[in-house]
Structure formats: structure tokens, C-alpha cells
Amino acid sequence: MRTTIASLSILGALIAATHISAQGLQAIRSEATMRESQPLVFTAGVSGGYDNLNYKADNLNAEDIDSFFIQSGVGLLYGDADQTTPWSVGSDFGVIRYLDDAPDGEDTYYSARVSFDIMHNASRRLKFVNNFYLTYEVEPNYSIGASTALRNGQYLYGYNNFAVSYAWSERFTTTTSYTVDGIRYDDSDVSGFEDRLSHVIAQQFAYSLNKRTQLVAEYRYRMTNYDSADNDYTSNYFLVGADHRWSERTSGSIRAGVEFYESDRSSETAPYAEAAIDHAVSKKTTGRLYASLGFDGAELGDYESRYATRIGGTVNHRMTERFSVNAGTHAAFSQYKGDGKNTQDFDETQVHASAGLAYRLWNNVSMDAQYSYTVLSSGEEAREYDRNRISIGLSATF
């Protein structure tokens, strides 16, 4: 399925705001999203549109797309802001069918996403947080960056973060966390290079300057194992940063330091950084900005390493009681390091931009239109492409 189903744009934006992030900021962000209760909402929608994707090289295994399509989906969202154990759950399920010139000989694709966030305040000092996200889809996820930049068929991606925080005093808190995430492709040719599982253990020390700001020092250890490829690697991170809350709805986090990267092919040291600002579920506007810098495990192939910078943001704004607009931009700038023999160094830039609008026709029925543009420029010409996609649809909430 495409990125978030056009007819489920509101639901998709809320789920994405909870989960898409620079590495390590999930638990910080999800706490903010659970501060307000969300009544149980069911969503159903149908839409249609046109998709055009052109690769610049003729010898690429992936195929162009030049087709009209129809899609439909259903979803739900619910949250309980209980003072002791707040939690939220979201899901959506959809199907898209290409009407002609279908890519890779397939004309029907499916998507399913489930998220579950929960926090438990065991006492004034002790807190547990768990964030879970699972998706089965076909489109590259430009924000998370775990999937390939190319459209390589359906894949399963999962993420779970568990953290325990303990306040030793009014100002000093420690947080220990364990994160596991992995990806698996249906296409055997792609899975041989991309299927992998990562484990991250982190220890954070935080000192509160006041009720809104805390300083942070953090150590992380990441271990990534590939199912078939010989790209296994480990990373050690030494980071400092800060968390700041401007209001009950707006918060931000930043981490910066050094990453020691060691794989079966190379050993490197480079700066690492991540940052995010969230404006969560206001009456009229929701928004998010993020950025990250570090080694990336996606699309290593025969290269020794990939060092990537990712930046982006999304915003949804309600102009009137009936009319709302949304927009988003995600960019990735990557440096691939070759071995100097079989592979050579090259740079790559990918930008994905989207915009849309929605108009409420009746109390629970809305019409929306979406447009997105993606371009990938690469030192490997066979990877380059540009894509235009437009859709219009109807959705209903219950």
C-alpha cells in the first residue's frame, strides 16, 4: 500500500506523530501524546488517483509505474489519559489496486499498521514506558528510513521500545531502555541484502534544571545482525543533550555526540546527532520537526558503510471548522563508502514532499485531496528516479 492511506489522513498523521523519529526519541515523544484522552474513533474511506514513477536507467530491475489506482481502508484510534496508566492504540488496514501498467507484474497491494503506547507510574519515583509499532506495506517510509529508498515490494517492519525510569531525587533521574527493531521483505532478492534485526541497550542520566528543562547524558549500544548479508555491525554512542517543554502541548529533545561504528567490513568514528520538536494534538494545529545524523543500516549492499543525514517535518492545520490543510517534507542525504575495488564512494540525495487538503461535507464525512513528489539523485545512476502521485477521496468517522 502507499504511504498513509489518503482517505485515512487524519488517523495516519496521529500514528505517524507517535512513531516516526530519530533513533532513541520514541519514549520521550509518546509520553506527550498520551496526555489527552482520545475517544474511540473508527474511520473508513475510499479514494482514487494517478501514480507516475520514472527510473532514469533502463537496466534497473525495478519497473516504472504509470497507472491510475483505487484504494480503500479502515482504521481506529483510541486513547485513555489515565493519571496512573495512560495508553493509546491505533491501527489502519488498506488495499490499493493499480488499473493498468502495474509495477513488477502485481496489481494489488495491502497495508496494515498497528501501534500501542502505554506508560505506568508505579510510584512518584518509578515509571515504565513501552512503545510498539508494526507495519506491513509496500511504500518506502521516508521518515523512519528503515526501508530502502526504492520501491522494492511489500515488507514487514516492527519496532518496540521498553524503558524504566527512576527518580533518585527531585532533580536526578536515570532511564534504562531496550529497543528491538527489524525488517523483512517478501522479495527474496531484496531480503538477501536487507533483512535484519537490531538491538539497542541505552542508559540515560538526566538532571532537571527546572520543571521544563533537563540536561541529559546517554550511552547506547546497538547490535545489528543481517539474515544473509555479511554486513553485521555494532555501534557505541556517547551522547549529551537536553529535553525542554515549552508547554503542555509542545516539547523538544536533542542529543549529540560521537558514534563508534564497527562492522565486518570497516571500523569508523563519526559525529552522531538527533533532534525533534513536537506540537501535540492542539485544537487547530499539530506539527513535528526532526533531524538525525549517523550511520545507517539500510541499503548497504556491497558497500562498507552508509552515513546519512535525515531532516523533515509535518504539519496539519485546521483553517475553519470544515476546512484543513496538511504538508510534509522528508529529505535524506547519504554518503556511501566503497572498498575502492569492487565499489566506489558515492553520494545520494532523496527528497519527498507532500501537501493536501480536506473539507468536511457533513458531521462525519470529509473529502480530501493529496499530492506528493519524490526525487532521488544518486552517484549510482541506476537508482535515480522521480515520482508524482495525486489522489482524491472520501472518508467517514464513527
Could you provide a short overview of the structure?
This protein is mostly beta strands and 398 residues long.
Structure characterization notes:
- The protein has 398 residues and is mostly beta strands.
- The chain contains 3 helices and 18 strands.
- The protein has helices spanning 9-19, 26-33, 188-194; strands spanning 38-55, 65-80, 87-98, 108-121, 126-137, 155-167, 172-185, 196-208, 213-226, 233-245, 250-263, 267-279, 285-295, 305-318, 323-337, 346-360, 365-378, 385-397.
- The protein has an 18-stranded antiparallel beta barrel.
- It is globular, with a radius of gyration of 21 Å.
Itemize the secondary structure elements and their pairings.
Layout lengths: L8 H11 L6 H8 L4 E18 L9 E16 L6 E12 L9 E14 L4 E12 L17 E13 L4 E14 L2 H7 L1 E13 L4 E14 L6 E13 L4 E14 L3 E13 L5 E11 L9 E14 L4 E15 L8 E15 L4 E14 L6 E13 L1
Antiparallel strand pairs: 1-2, 1-18, 2-3, 3-4, 4-5, 5-6, 6-7, 7-8, 8-9, 9-10, 10-11, 11-12, 12-13, 13-14, 14-15, 15-16, 16-17, 17-18
